[in-house]
Amino acid sequence: MMSVEEAITGRHSVRAFLPKPVPREIIGKILLIAGRAPSGTNIQPWKVWVLDGRVRDEVVREMKGAHDAGYDGRREYHYDMQTWREPYLARRRACGFGLYGKLGIQKGDKARMRAQQGRNYAFFDAPVGLIFSIDRDLERGSWVDYGMFLQSIMVAARSFGLDTCPQAALCSRHEILQKRLGIPAEQMVVCGMALGYADPDAIVNTFITERMALEEFVTFVEEVKGD
Question: Phi and psi dihedrals of 114, rounded to 5?
Answer without folding.
Answer: -65, -35
